[in-house]
Amino acid sequence: MPREPGSRRLMWVLLVMAILLALVFAGSVAWRSPGDYLPWIDGGAYTGVILLAALIAVLRAGRGGPQGPGWGLLATGMILYALGEVWWAVAGRFREEIVWLPLEDALWLAYYPVQVLALWLLMGKAPRRDRNLLDALVLSGGLLVTLAVLLQGWRPGTAAAEEGLVVAGLYVTGDLILMVLALLLAYVQRWRVSPGWWLIALGYLIFALSDSLYWVLSAYDAYVEGTWVDIGWLLSSLALAGAAILGLEALPPPQVQSLRGMVPAAIAVMLSGLALGWGPEGAFGDFARYAAIATLALALFRLNYAIRDAAEANEQRRRALIDDLTGLPNRHALHALPELPGKALASPTGWCLVALGLDRFADINASLGHERGDRLLALTAERLGGCLGPGDVLARLEGDEFAMLMRLADPSQTFAGAERLRAALEQPFEIDGVPVALTACMGVSATLDPVPAIGPLLKEADLAMHHAKREGPGLIRAYSGQEAPSSVHRLRMRARLRADFQDGGAAFELHYQPIVRIDNSALLAMEALVRWRQDGALVPPGQFLGEIEHAGLMVPLTTLVLHRAIAAIHRQGQGHAVTVNVSPELVTPWLLDQVRDALDRAGAPAHSLIVEVTEDALIRNPDTANEVLRALRVQGVRVLLDDFGAGWCGLSAVRDLAVDGLKIDRAFVARIHRDLPTRAITGSIVNLGRDLGLTVIGEGVEDAGEQAELEALGVEWVQGFAYAKPMPETALADYLSHHPPT
Ligand code: C2E
Ligand code: MG
Ligand code: MG
Predict the structure, then answer these.
(1) What is the pLDDT of residue 391?
(2) 677 vs 68, which has greater pLDDT?
(3) Superfamily of domain 507-737
(4) pTM score, two decimals?
(5) Which residues surround ligand 3, an ion (CB under 5 A)?
(6) Helix, strand or coil for residue 741?
(7) Residue nearest to atom 8 of ligand 1 (CA)
(8) How far apart are CA 176 and CA 294, in angstroms?
(9) Where do the domains of the chain lie?
(10) Domain boundaries 331-483, corresponding CATH code
(11) Atom in ligand 1 nearest the alpha carbon of residue 530
(12) In this structure, which ligand is nearest to the CA of 579?
C-alpha cells in the first residue's frame, strides 16, 4: 500500500477529532434540558468542530495544485463562520438590546460570498462558469421565493422578529446559492463529478435545511440553542472537511452548456411570477417579494447572455456548413441537405448530381500564387452558380472540387446540367488582367427518387469524375458502376505492370502519330505514344500511367520508350525524327544520360530525337528543368512544350524557356471556332511563338474547320486525327515513305 502523505494522515486525525467533538455536542443535546447553555460545549466543542474542519481545508490548500486557492478560500469562509460563533458565545448572547446586523451575523454572512468565490475557483477554468454562477443565482432566487411563500402559507399572520427574519432569510439565500451552484456544476458534468464534489453539495444541502428550519423557528421566536437543529450545521462542516480530505479531481470541460441556456431562468421566473401573483403578505411575504424582484432582474440579465450564446452557436453552425472562400455550402451542408428544416428538397422527376474537379488546378495555383488561386476559385464558384436552376444547390466539396445537385426535368437529359457547366467555364477567367483558361472534369450520377440520398449520389459522381480525370482534361463521365478501381484492383494492376517490366517490357507497345506541316504534309516528327497490351486488348496511357507513377515505374517506362522509339525511327533509315513524352519528375540530369545512351546504342544522330515536356516540369522545378533542357539542346536534341496553355506557365514565361516549340493544347483547338476569347488567346500564343522563333504546333486537330482556323491564325504545324491516328510500328515504314522529313 502506498504511504499516505503526512498531511493527509493529519487530516484524517483532525477529522476523527472533529467527529468526536460533534458526538460530544450531540450527546449533550440528548441529555441536557431545553434552554440550558453549556459554555464549554456550545461555545467550545461546537466551534472546535468548525475550526477543525477549517484546518483540514487549510491543509488541503497547503498541498497546492490548481485547486489550492479554492480550498484556501473555503477554509477562510469556515474560519469566519467559526469566529462568528466565538463572538456570539462571548458577546452576542449577552446583548440586551436588538441590534441590526451584529458582528456575529456579519461574520456568518461573510461566509457566503467567500464560499461562492471558493466554489468558483474549485470549478477550475470551466468555460462559461460565469453562466453557471448566474444560473445558480437565478435558480436559487426562484427556490427562495417559493420557500418564503410556502412558509407564509404555513403560518400566516405576522412573524415576531422582523429584523431577525430578514437576516435569517439571507442565510437561506446564501445556502441555496451554494447548493444550487454545486449541483449545477455536477449537472453540467453530466453528474460525473468526484465524490469530494458530492460531499460539498451535501454539506450545503444540510446547511440549507438547517437554516430554513432556523428561519421558521426564529420568525416565531421558537428557536432554542443547543437542540438538534444545531447538529445540522456541524454535519455540514464535517461534510466539507470530508471533501477536503478526498480532494477533487480536475474537472473535464462541461458536457452540457449551462442547463441549456434559459431553463433555470425560466423556472425561476415562473416561480417568482407565481409567488408575486399569490400576493405575498406579512414578513415572509415581503421577503418573497424582494427576492422575486431580484430574481426577475437577474433572469433578465441572464437572458442577455442567452441571446449572445444563441447567436454564437448559430454562427458556429453556419461556419461549420459554409465554405469561407466562396460562401457556398460545404460538403457537410450538402450531406445535411435533406434533413435541413424548411428546405423542401423534392423533385418528382428526380435529381442529378455533378461532381466537378478543375483540371491541373494545383499547377495554376502554384504559378498564380495562392491569393490569386483563391480568387479564381471564387470566380469559378460564381460562374457555376449562374448555371443553377431554382432549387438547385451548388456546394464546394474541397480545394478545386465542386458539386451541383440539380433537379432533373427530363430523366433522359442527365448530361444537360454538366454540359451547361462546361459551357460556363469555356470563357477564360481574368485575374489581374491576365486571362486564365480553366477546364474541368465532371462525373454525373442521377436518381429518380424525389428526395435524393446525397451520400451514395455523391460517391458515384465522385468516382465518375475521377474516372474522367484519368482519361484526360475537360471530360464528362456518367457513373456506370464500373469505374470504382478498388484498391485491390489497382494493387493487382501495379503488380502486373511490374511483372511486365521484369519480363522485358514486351507488353508495352509504341504507336506513332505524325506532326505534319499544313501546307505540304512534310513531317516534323512521329510522336511515340505508349500502350499496354492486356489480355489481347490495348490499354491507352491515360488508364495506366497513374499506376506506373504510383508504382515508381516511370523510369523503366521512359527508358524503354526512349530506346525503342529512337531505334524504330532510325531503322527506317530516312532521317526522320521521333518525339518522346517525358513526365515532369524525370526532367533531371538522369534524362541527359538516358538520352545519350539511347542515341549511342541506336547509333542515331541527336536531331532524330525530340523530347516533349509539359509545363508542369517547369513549374515544379524551374531551375533544374531549364538547365536539363538547355543541355539537351546543346547535344542537338530538340525540345517541345506539350499541352501548352492547359497548365499555367504564362505566355511571358516561355521567353526564358529552353524550348524549340510549343504544342497548343487540344482544349484550345477544340474551342477555337466556337469561342472568341479562346481564339484570341491562341492567336497571341502563335504570335509570341513566331516572334521567339518557335515551332508552333496545333494538337488534336480533328477536322478541316479546326485546321482552317489554326491556319488563319498562322499555325504551320498540326497533329491530330484529321491527319493520322496513332499507328502501330508495322505501319510506320509505309507512312514514312510517303512523308519526307523536313
Ligand atoms: P499527349 O502527349 O498530349 O499525346 C496526345 C494525345 O492526344 C494522345 O493520346 C493522342 O492519341 C491524342 N490525340 C491525337 N490526336 C487527337 C485528336 O485529333 N483528337 C483527340 N481527341 N485526341 C487526339 P494518348 O496516346 O492516349 O496519350 C495520352 C497522353 O499520355 C499523352 O498526351 C501523353 O501525355 C501521355 N503519354 C503517352 N505516351 C507516353 C509515354 O511514353 N511517356 C509518358 N511519360 N507519357 C506518355
Ligand atoms: Mg505529347
Ligand atoms: Mg499533348
Answers:
(1) 79
(2) 68
(3) EAL domain (3.20.20.450)
(4) 0.48
(5) 642-643, 699
(6) strand
(7) 529
(8) 15
(9) 331-483, 507-737
(10) 3.30.70.270
(11) 38
(12) 2
